[in-house]
Amino acid sequence: MKTICIVYGGDSPESEISVLTSLKVYKELKGNNIPCFLVYLNHKGEFFTGKALENVDNYLTYKCFSKGKFIKINSNYYFLSHLKKHRFDEVLILGHGPRIEDGTVASYFQTKNIPYLYDDLSNASLIQDKSRFKMIMDYLKIKQTSFEIIYKHQFEKDNNLYLTLKYPLIVKPANLGSSIGIKKVNNKEELILGLNSVFEYDETAVIEEYVVNKKEYNIALVGYENKRILSQIELVSDNAKVLSFYDKYDYSNKNEKRIINPLIEDSIKEEIERNTLKVFTQLNLCGIYRFDYIFDTSHNVLYLNEINVVPGSLAYYLFEGKGIKFIDLILMDIRILRKKKENRLYVKKTFEEGFIKDIDISKLKK
Known about the structure:
Elements: E1 4-9, H1 15-31, E2 36-41, E3 47-49, E4 66-73, E5 76-81, E6 84-88, E7 90-94, H2 104-111, E8 116-117, H3 121-128, H4 130-139, E9 147-151, H5 152-157, E10 169-173, E11 183-185, H6 188-198, E12 204-209, E13 214-224, E14 227-235, H7 245-248, E15 259-260, H8 266-282, E16 287-296, E17 301-308, H9 316-319, H10 326-345
Parallel strand pairs: 1-2, 1-7, 7-8
Antiparallel strand pairs: 2-3, 3-4, 4-5, 5-6, 9-12, 10-11, 10-12, 13-14, 13-16, 14-15, 16-17
């Protein structure tokens, strides 16, 4: 049986959420006798392991964390910490936010030729960046709220902001999630304050028209190539405000802002499922993704808001109603990511290898 090294954390404002996700996954794997261990990546780019990682309180002080590094000896992979080698077969990356969910950490393992379980770096980077993601959705003719993209250097040069959008607006960092840095603004003064806040997290801001009368729906999908399974739909709307960080990650039954399998018109449900499958297929995604939609109840229009490469807790709660247990979802995710990993092995890494020996360097143009 393969040993899995779970890597999480990273230099991201959403690092703490990845701790919760990873500990949930770790507990499920260990509880089902699947060999695995934790490796935490902090904001400084340092890797740690050890029993202490299982205690959430220790992440405030790094108490008893064992610093280490990844090495390869012959054909075996290890995490070396204090002269102790922890052998593993592959790395499962569970991170949220920029500099990890966008494929940054996966590219580290790819460069070191360490087997890792993650979707293509191009997919992760594209979807994490909301500004570029919106451009691609326009190409696919997927409905979105009206939006504009503002870069920090533009704002610093001229903050008059000649927008064609109508207030109220939503201002958000292009590369963040979990409601971090998101502001609802009602006038130009609030917009400037909101952008100043956004540019503390990102150099790109997405400005969208706010849908006043709305319902927000989430749906997840797990799959790759021709095998895809849609989850149940979740209603997460609260018209009074933008959902908070805590609203989004409270999966308890007491959270009335999250309703699984809500009453929903068949036409809306079918459009959500159809758009989700279309985007997943067209981008050739692999793994577990969560799609977030906004339904404008005043104009009866459905908009795709964003997609999450690694949804919090792998969106396991959306699959339970389909009879898929959390551990089964994790193992399904691992299997299809292994298929993606195997497909990478067939891609040629060289072109006309050895041709350089025939080149006369003295004749090359300078």
